[in-house]
Write the structure tokens for this entry.
Amino acid sequence: MTKRSKNLYDPKSSEPFKLSRSKIENFVQCPRCFYLDRRLGVGRPSMPGFTLNSAVDTLLKKEFDVYRTGQQPHPIMDAYGVDAVPFIHDELVVWRENFKGVQYFHPKTNFYVFGAVDDIWQNKDGELIVVDYKSTSKDGEVDLDDHWKDAYKRQMEIYQWLLRRNGYKVQNLGYFVYANGRSDLDGFDAKLEFKLTLLPYSGDDAWVEGALVKARDCLVSEKIPDYSDTCEHCQYRLDAAEVEK
């Protein structure tokens, strides 16, 4: 991995700076890593793509699009008593596209904030419902209880914030369509079977505004933020440097 020279924040520039949903999450997790990445061009080590998860996302989108076209609820919506249908909008293709997504210019920070949603539903009151697809394979039922899933919740809240800033009425209650791969079957038979669960989550996007201002203040500063006790990347750098001494 080499030092990046593009997509860096320049405090002297008047041009809006593009800031993705995932980079906001990076700031929340560790301002130091965020600063090193967006200001100095040294990002965290990259991870392999989760291609199986991407395949599940793609197939779920195709499946929900069938019900979107007919403006009918998906069976999982009926099963969980969700009185809504998949939302139809000309921009939905763009809203789902990586590096584009739902976009909003935030004047206070001069950030161009964006994030790609998985799906949007609409209830009978005209409110939009943010829906995110997740996939895993674990014994027992899926849930949102693990502390690292707080990032999932913030992800949904940023999408809700973006849609509201674009003038849409958005329901606080969103949903995670969770696909859990079954490992209790007798054999593979060249296919995976999943159990779909719908997990509700009541979002609160009140934190987003403050986080954006703090992220801007972080990038404007000439001082690199301190190491974080909770960041595994920071701890790796500290431990490696100690050993190398």
About this structure: The chain has eight helices and eight strands. The chain has a mean pLDDT of 95. Residues 142 and 217 are 38 Å apart (CA to CA). The radius of gyration is 20 Å.
